[in-house]
Amino acid sequence: MQKNFFHFNIESFRHFLINDLSVDEKQASMRSKQIWDFVYKKGYSKIADLTTLPIELRNKIISSISFDVPKIISTQVSTDGTIKWLIRLLDNNEVECVFIPEKTRATLCISSQVGCTLNCRFCHTGTQRLVKNLHFSEIVNQVMIAKEQLNDWDEQKKISNIVLMGMGEPFYNYENVKFAVEILKDKLGLSYGLKKITVSTAGIANKIPDAAREIGTYLALSLHAPNDEIRELIMPINKKFKIKELVQQCKYYSSIVKEKITLEYVMLRGINDSLECAKQLVKLMAQFPCKVNLIEFNRWPGVQYLPTERQDMEKFAKIIENAGYIATIRRSRGQDIFGACGQLRTESQKKK
Ligand code: SF4
Q1: What's residue 189's pLDDT?
Q2: Which of 222, 240, 344 to mutate to test the pocket of ligand 1 (most atoms within 8 A of CB)?
Q3: CA end-to-end span of the chain, whole Å?
Q4: Spatial distance between the Cα atoms of 94 and 88, rounded to a whole number of angstroms
Q5: What are the φ and ψ backbone dihedral angles of 125, each rounded to 5 degrees?
Q6: How is domain 71-337 classified at the architecture level of CATH?
Q7: Neighbour-count burial for 277-302, b at 16+ CB within 10 Å, e otherwise
Q8: Which 3-state string (H, E, C) describes the chain?
């Protein structure tokens, strides 16, 4: 049976060349790097163009390895240029990923799970029960597919940043996320520097120290409330990991990674948007290096919350800025195609 190229890491691929394709041990390291670099830099559909590889080896690779990737089954383009792809995985489950072009950068938001266990009350994904953790190849393939769609194979990348903020909680699929980031950041792989990748967590506090040591990307914490009382109301995970513990682990993360942590704060009218909440948030922000993104709430069918008015968001931001911290109001992107923050959801269900 053919092996799928994307299930290898570079070391296991080198072993495969030696053991299965009888490549000389002395040559295997060079050949594995050459093929690896080509596929991740030029795309999986052009392997037959790798003419610097001896023809015999090229033919062996084409016959013994599949370069199959999940398929895009729908593409929606927002009036603001955001693109949402619905992707059918090789096992027929479905995930979504979203491309968000801006003036100075373009971000690809990818998923780490099909569905989610965390059930954050304001999030559409949270209404879809967890179907599965994505394999690291399925995480990386979202980037490969998007690059293929955008013909993004030049040195000057069209997708400049990658955020793991799509469907799922990355730290509940920790090992696969870790392996995926290895490939995303590898100079021979997709070659995104650690400072171009952000992993977002809803607050799985006990995984934050491991991520500081082993993943090392930018970290985004979906905080969404300045105290336990409100946070528990909108994020049930707060019953398990309280804000005090999150603050402790964020201090540790920033001491290792030496970058500000981004706090994500979706603004829900009458829930977490009072000026008192802003003052409490300032006190929290004083405890570790961080900045906050204030996110316009994106509605979805059946949700009970309303977005905070724009002028109230600005007043909230002012309190934070006056205290000396960065508060950025994030414009909603891709709302008309349900591609905005917290709106992703697919029809996949766990098989009984
Ligand atoms: S916000 Fe993130 S962690 Fe919470 S339910 Fe949605 S996908 Fe899951």
Answers
A1: 83
A2: 222
A3: 28
A4: 5
A5: -60, -35
A6: Alpha-Beta Barrel (3.20)
A7: bbebbbebbeebbbebbbbbbbbbee
A8: CCEEHHHCCHHHHHHHHHHCCCCCHHHHHHHHHHHHHHHHHHCHHHHHHCCCCCHHHHHHHHHHEECCCCEEEEEEECCCCCEEEEEECCCCCEEEEEEEECCCCEEEECCCEECCCCCCCCCCHHHCCCCEECCHHHHHHHHHHHHHHHCCCCCCCCCCEEEECCCCCHHHHHHHHHHHHHHHHCCCCCCCCHHHEEEEECCCHHHHHHHHHHCCCEEEEECCCCCHHHHHHHCHHHHCCCHHHHHHHHHHHHHHHCCCEEEEEEEECCCCCCHHHHHHHHHHHCCCCEEEEEEECCCCCCCCCCECCHHHHHHHHHHHHHCCCCEEEECCCCHHHCCCCCCCCCCCCCCC
**For the chain, domain boundaries:** 3-66, 71-337
Catalytic residue list contains 25? no
Q: Could you tell me the distance, in angstroms and rounded to a whole number, from the CA of residue 158 to the centre of ligand 1? A: 27
> Which CATH number applies to 3-66: 1.10.1060, 1.20.120, 1.20.140, 1.10.150?
1.10.150
Structure tokens at 73: 């089954």
Residue tagged active-site, from 11, 94, 96, 347:
96
Name the token pair of 151.
């013909």
The model's confidence at residue 128, banded by pLDDT at 50, 70 and 90, is confident
Nearest-angstrom CA–CA distance, 135 and 125: 19
pLDDT at 144: 96
Structure confidence by residue, pLDDT tens digits, 24-72: 998 999 999 999 999 999 887 777 788 888 999 999 998 899 999 999 9
> How many angstroms separate the alpha carbon of residue 235 from the centre of ligand 1?
9
96 is catalytic: yes
Question: Which pTM was predicted?
Answer: 0.94
Residue listed under structure tokens 């309303």: 306
